[in-house]
Amino acid sequence: MKMSSFMYFARFGLKTLFTKSEKPILGTVIVTDKCNLHCKHCSVNNITAVIRPYEKVKEEMKTLYDMGIRILFFCGGETFLWNDSGKNLRDLVIEAKQMGFMIVNVVTNGTFKIDLPEADLILLSLDGDRERHNIIRGDTYDTIMENISHATADNICFYMAINKFNKEAVADVCQLAKNTKNVRAVSFNFHTPYPDTRELKLSVDEKREICEVIKDQMKKGAPVFNLKSAFPYLIENKFPTPCKQCVVIENGKISTCGRCIDIPGLCDECGYFFVAEYTLLFSGNLKVIFEMLRTYLKYV
User: Fold this and answer.
1) At what angle do helices 273-282 and 286-299 cross, to 10 degrees?
2) Residue 24 CB partners (closer than 8 Å, separation 6+)
3) Which of 281, 277, 300 lies closest to 289 in space, CA to CA?
4) How many domains are contained in the chain?
5) pLDDT tens-digit map of 231-258
6) What is the spatial distance between Cα 201 and Cα 103, in angstroms, rounded to a whole number?
7) What residues pair up with 106 in beta bridges, in sequence order?
8) What CATH number should be reported for the domain holding residue 121?
């Protein structure tokens, strides 16, 4: 992370803490919900299967920037399916940087060629070892690993949603992140149980056991892009929701924190690690603040 960006975010954090501001800093643009996969845990793919027009995406980026957002995510569906008016995902990342966003990240399922060195992080969904991943996402594991080996930058971060199917594979993914070329880290979430995927929800005891595994992997040098100081809050779902400092924009609609906010009661079962981390950060949790400083300086 550039020192100028670090200082900007530090000032933002201090201002938020002392003034109790709810101004957002992190924004996500949903460029499409079209996806080439039909994953067992996903409730938001191919609802419309519409590729958002370039001018509309550009307008939404500008909207977020004018709100003060400086950390931008491009999400889907599958982001690498996006193209319009002769533009592709790489063009969007470059344009976001030129617009002034300080950190620009992309979320992908990894089944397409990974040529995106301009992104700060590429959050690539890997949901376990080969067997468990393929149960969830279809026969894609070998394709993904091949694409990672030929990626044009080392800016990949595994992005694993932990659920009933793959909870035993957390250590495997940690070690894979540690030992795989072009992979910088791994970031975890617990499954957030949308109404049609409630059978994948983890119990409190399961989440506690998983957090112990992650902490053990951290001790062994696994590059985990999460904060262990937030684990107790995640296990019991005792962190503030929604995160007012994060917004999502999709087809002109701005949602605080994420699209799931519209589903009654789902915030109370949130499994997104970043939501816990950010809400605890901006609530003034000192352990989270110091650990986030160390972690972001290391991996972003």
Assistant:
1) 120
2) 67, 68, 69, 244, 245, 246, 247
3) 281
4) 1
5) 999 999 999 999 999 999 999 999 999 8
6) 31
7) 74, 122
8) 3.20.20.70
